[in-house]
Amino acid sequence: MGQLMTLALRGVLVVLLAGAACLQGVLIWLLVAGSPDPDAALASVRTPVFLIVVAGAAAAEVVLVCVWRLVTMVRRGTVFSLGAFRYVHIVIGAFVAAALLVCALGVVLAPGEAVAPGIVLMLGGVVVAILGVALVVLVLRMLLAQAVARDIEAARMRAELAEVI
């Protein structure tokens, strides 16, 4: 991974982290300020929706920090080690948590006339998409496991060859 690509990826990660942090700050401020909602149907779900979105932004921040750490490991040449699995597991867990949060959002918004049923159905599609991303990361984790196993085997063979020579 080149220096320019690493810098570009880190720049994107910083912008996304700052955006998620700003979103959390604004939502928490709005929740604490307690401005009255003009729509009475949405007023009853306001607090749970804000809390779910803040938790979702936290899940996104966790993913971004783990990707940052993995990029650092790639840059150092240590990504094919057992330490990388910790970050990959956290990413998978954060995606599953995000899917559960979107599902909870759908459950909160489903009763009553506050939102159209199509919105709740779209949230169900988002849950499936997020779980699909978690499955893709799981497949990539399996590829990482194979690469680590081959790297360990190559190191063992190099050591045997060094003994023979």
Short characterization:
By secondary structure, this protein is mainly alpha-helical.
Folded structure, characterized:
By secondary structure, this protein is mostly helical. 85% of the residues lie in helices and 0% in strands. It has helices at residues 3-33, 40-43, 46-76, 83-109, 117-164. The radius of gyration is 21 Å and the shape is elongated.
Please outline the helices and strands.
Blueprint: H1 3-33, H2 40-43, H3 46-76, H4 83-109, H5 117-164
Query: Rough shape?
Result: elongated
Proportion of residues in extended strands:
under 5%
**For the CA atoms, what is the radius of gyration?**
21 Å
How far from one another are the termini?
A: 33 Å
Helix percent band: over 70%
Low-confidence parts lasting 5 or more residues at pLDDT below 50? Answer: none
Number of strands: 0
**Count of helices?**
5
Main features:
elongated; 165 residues; 0% strand; mainly alpha
